[in-house]
Design brief:
Length: 563
């Protein structure tokens, strides 16, 4: 759009319709005219806009979004505009314009009949357990219905409702709807205990994070949904023990009563109370489930294994035998699985597949990162910086007493060189007789825990630890198997990830043989996956820059790429 101010000198101040049209366009784009802007210049620019609109209408068209953005950008450069929020100091304490929030509506409220709203509404969201509304802070505590909302903010609104936080909603009214573009904490007294306060910086930071993010898909991953932590204060914990203590293992019930007593007894140090409260929160937010396992479909289990791995029929057979055992006894096997083999042969994938088959959460940690046994066993509460061990944290994070422990690189645990004291701390866990965490000061039932470990070299694992596992040795793939894996698994998976069609990247049989022979000194298939990434990326580059419809790789072509 060409802007020429001089040719529009004929426009007079009475061109109000054009000014109104321009103001509407600016508002829709999140801008307002600066209060100190020269009124004559504003009206002049409104005339320019009006002429452009009429010219487009004569041609039978409309002004494009790009032309609109160009026009608004020009007004902004001229210093005539400011973002809509910049007129709302409640949104931007200290006039920190760099942290201004985009003016798009995050929630839309239905204005009740007879209620007059300006650009700010004070009140609080109601408790979402009774239905989420907005309750105005007026004499009648007017309840305002929610017309629609940005789903990314749903959990924030629920949190504000649960904690009765008094806030300001900032926005604009259009007919009977209030379009909210910002939220700020209301710095006011607590009214009859019905409202609370929150820090405005925290609220603004949270809103900024949400607005810059996308709504994640609400789908369960292999760990399953995490339980919402409900028991996080001494009152709720005491009430829970009174109402549902009978559902807890007997030793945990007694342990919990003792720690509640610590939290409520005068003369106990604040440090002891804090540790006791933390331990109670971790322990009681775990769902202590039955260790009875329903039958598992062996055919479905086999399909899951086949989708994860090519070949390894003997290994898969051992896993299926374990599944059959569970079906007969309805309990987990008394021995865990130890998968031993060269790097890159799919040991970790097998472990994750077993967790999926058992339909229970899993937790993963690498023994190569454990330098101190206390990382697993926890530290005593006598220290101010004491904390629970990784095993207890796994229970708390998954929220379940039934879970799969996937222990990677068991043979690389640090310690005395024969297997490491860190690894030997797992002995009581693997016995399924109960595990004692130094921080929790309680024996944790482990008969719902199934352990799957991986290792490259069995010689570096102590005999006591090794005796707790059923060992499955995983051989390296043969050259022929690697060719099939590259052709049917690695390359197709890479092409799908890049959004490419099979015919866009063709690798000949002799090229596949060349790739396999190039990595003949390496075990496993990780090098094949990296080669597939390199080749597919090169093909995509040639297609996008050279206008090709397909790229074909023979042995000579892949040799030059892999050098």
């Amino acid at each position: 759009m060409s802007l020429n101010v001089e040719k529009n000198n004929s426009h007079k101040p009475e061109d109000k319709p054009a000014t109104k049209d321009l103001l509407k366009v600016l508002m829709d784009s999140g801008y307002v005219v600066r209060t100190d802007a020269d009124e004559n210049i504003v009206r002049e620019m409104a005339g320019v806009w009006n002429d452009a609109v009429k010219e487009k209408e004569k041609e039978g068209g409309n002004i494009s979004d790009a032309e609109t953005d160009e026009f608004i950008g020009t007004l902004d450069v001229m210093g005539l505009l400011e973002r809509e929020e910049e007129t709302l100091p409640e949104l931007i304490p200290g006039n920190d314009l760099e942290n201004a929030v985009d003016p798009k509506s995050i929630i839309i409220l239905k204005v009740p009949d007879g209620m007059v709203l300006s650009r700010k509404l004070k009140g609080a969201f109601t408790n979402p357990d009774r239905g989420l509304f907005f309750e105005a802070d007026d004499r009648n505590s007017t309840r305002i219905m929610i017309e629609s909302m940005d789903l990314r903010f749903a959990e924030l609104f629920s949190w504000l409702g649960k904690h009765h936080v008094l806030i300001n909603l900032i926005g604009r009214v259009n007919r009977d709807l209030f379009f909210v573009s910002g939220i700020s904490a209301a710095k006011a007294e607590v009214i009859d205990g019905s409202f609370g306060e929150t820090d405005d910086d925290f609220l603004r930071c949270t809103i900024s994070h949400i607005k810059s993010s996308v709504l994640q898909k609400n789908e369960e991953d292999k760990k399953g949904p995490l339980p919402e932590p409900m028991l996080n204060d001494i009152t709720s914990i005491r009430n829970y023990l009174d109402c549902a203590g009978v559902t807890l293992p007997s030793n945990i019930r007694l342990w919990a009563a003792r720690n509640v007593n610590i939290c409520e007894t005068d003369g106990i140090s604040e440090q002891e109370k804090q540790h006791a409260m933390r331990a109670l929160t971790l322990m009681l937010n775990v769902y202590w489930k039955s260790t009875y396992f329903s039958p598992i479909d062996p055919e479905k289990a086999r399909r899951i294994l086949d989708e994860e791995l090519y070949g390894l029929s003997d290994v898969k057979q051992r896993v299926i035998e374990t599944i059959i055992q569970i079906n007969r006894t309805h309990t987990l096997p008394s021995y865990g699985l130890l998968l031993v083999g060269p790097a890159g042969t799919g040991k970790s994938r097998i472990a994750y597949a077993v967790a999926e088959i058992l339909k229970i959460p899993f937790t993963v940690f690498d023994m190569s990162t454990v330098r101190d046994p206390e990382a697993l066993t926890g530290t005593s509460r006598i220290y101010s910086n004491a904390r629970p061990g990784r095993i207890m944290e796994a229970f708390a994070e998954t929220g379940s007493s039934n879970l799969v422990f996937v222990i990677n690189e068991l043979d690389k645990a640090s310690g005395d060189g024969k297997s490491g004291a860190s690894a030997d701390t797992l002995l009581t866990l693997l016995d399924n007789l109960g595990y004692t965490d130094n921080y929790m000061e309680c024996q944790i039932p482990t008969n719902g825990v199934y352990t799957i470990a991986t290792a490259n070299d069995i010689e570096h694992i102590s005999k006591p630890l090794l005796s707790r596992f059923s060992v499955i040795r995983i051989p390296d793939y043969t050259p022929k198997e690697k060719e099939i894996i590259f052709t049917e698994f690695s390359l197709p998976k890479t092409l799908r990830r890049l959004g490419m069609k099979k015919e866009e990247c063709v690798v000949t049989d002799d090229a596949v043989k060349k790739i396999v022979s190039h990595f003949s000194d390496s075990t496993g298939c990780r090098d094949l996956e990296q080669a597939a990434e390199h080749i597919a990326g090169n093909a995509l580059y040639q297609i996008e820059t050279g206008g090709l419809s397909t790229v074909r790789y023979d042995a000579k072509a892949v040799a030059s790429l892999l050098l």
